[in-house]
Write a structure and sequence with these properties.
2 domains
Length: 221
């Protein structure tokens, strides 16, 4: 997770679209494929693929409470950080105490997200989120919270992540886009791209798919 957070920081600091895509592609190539698949989903600002119906149901008030408890800071101090930074993830990164962390993998973090999604009630979710954030560095916490809120705010849209997948594995953007549209899973799309099997992507019953852009036709016939 630390490497993911460090890469996200580099992407955020890079204004060029092409440079962002290069950073994403290099990052994917440096990871084992299954880890890269999770990274693709996280870089899209989501804890799970689109086709996974498992909302975290973690609201702003719950996030704020967990950050306050872990940081030991007052409401006034956290509000001042938020006014300065304007982002819950950045508040976590600034407010939480420095710690070495326990070297969680992206798979570890996604398993924690799965537990949070399955937990019933705000108290159980707050406990699990606190456990997760208590095991990572402030920089990792920053991006875990950003994923929870659904917006990394690093200038990286899903379409750019798709371009990163295409660049990393020698596919065309059109192939990656179509496979992701059919599967509703950018991680699975990356796995297919890594083995040159994007053409095997098939729409599945009872799974959501992305909208397609309409194309004009010359006549009703």
């Amino acid at each position: 997770m630390l490497r993911f957070a460090q890469t996200a920081e580099l992407i955020a600091a890079t204004p060029s679209k092409l440079a962002k895509i290069t950073l994403v592609a290099d990052y994917f190539r440096a990871l084992p494929v299954q880890e890269a698949a999770i990274a693709a989903i996280f870089l899209s600002g989501r804890p799970f693929a689109d086709c996974v119906e498992a909302p975290l149901q973690v609201g702003a008030a719950l996030l704020w409470r967990v950050i306050a408890e872990l940081s030991g800071k007052s409401e006034r101090e956290l509000t001042e950080i938020y006014k300065r930074r304007g982002d819950a993830g950045a508040v976590a990164g600034d407010a939480l105490p420095e710690r070495a962390g326990t070297r969680l993998s992206l798979a570890d973090v996604q398993r924690a997200f799965t537990e949070i999604a399955a937990a019933r009630g705000p108290a159980a979710k707050a406990y699990l989120l606190g456990e997760l954030l208590g095991r990572v560095t402030p920089l990792e916490a920053k991006y875990i919270v950003k994923i929870v809120t659904g917006d990394l705010r690093i200038g990286l849209k899903e379409s750019l992540v798709e371009e990163g997948v295409a660049s990393a594995f020698g596919a065309t953007v059109e192939q990656v886009n179509r496979a992701n549209m059919l599967l509703g899973d950018l991680g699975e799309t990356l796995v297919l791209a890594s083995t040159g099997k994007l053409a095997e992507a098939r729409m599945r019953l009872f799974h959501p798919i992305d909208f397609m852009l309409a194309s004009p036709v010359a006549s009703t016939e």
